[in-house]
Design a protein that fits this description.
Layout lengths: L1 H17 L1 H6 L2 H10 L4 H18 L4 H23 L9 H19 L4 H6 L3
Length: 127
């Protein structure tokens, strides 16, 4: 089970991290997406930062739950954006971005389920 958990962590982190180049470099597709959503450039940069933090947290065993929860939040917005604003296919990508969002959402869901016994500890944490 540990091997499966690490594979899921790595898949989620790699997908989250590979999109950062496009978001932070201002690639045409990223600019198009966030312009269509009406949140360019702040939404693009902000979501990139959130994804970077989520990926790092997911890879650290002690903070996996927190990273997976953050990932679920970011990916929920991405999936809803695809379903209600952008469409499944964006700029003739064949739905690749949508499929990657679904895969990462499922990985994060698995990690939350895997760490569900730690959720009460998160709620008790005092800042």
């Amino acid at each position: 089970m540990k091997t499966l958990t690490w594979i899921v962590r790595i898949v989620a982190a790699v997908i989250l991290l590979q999109t950062l180049y496009f978001k932070f470099s201002g690639a045409d597709e990223s600019v198009f997406i966030f312009t269509k959503l009406g949140i360019e450039p702040y939404g693009r940069i902000g979501s990139g930062i959130a994804e970077l933090i989520a990926a790092i947290l997911i890879l650290v065993p002690r903070t996996t739950l927190l990273g997976a929860l953050l990932g679920l939040g970011v990916l929920s917005v991405a999936i809803f954006s695809h379903l209600f604003v952008l469409g499944i296919e964006v700029q003739n990508d064949g739905g690749t971005l949508f499929i990657l969002a679904i895969i990462t959402f499922l990985c994060c869901s698995f990690l939350v389920f895997q760490n569900k016994n730690k959720i009460s500890d998160l709620l008790k944490y005092k800042f």
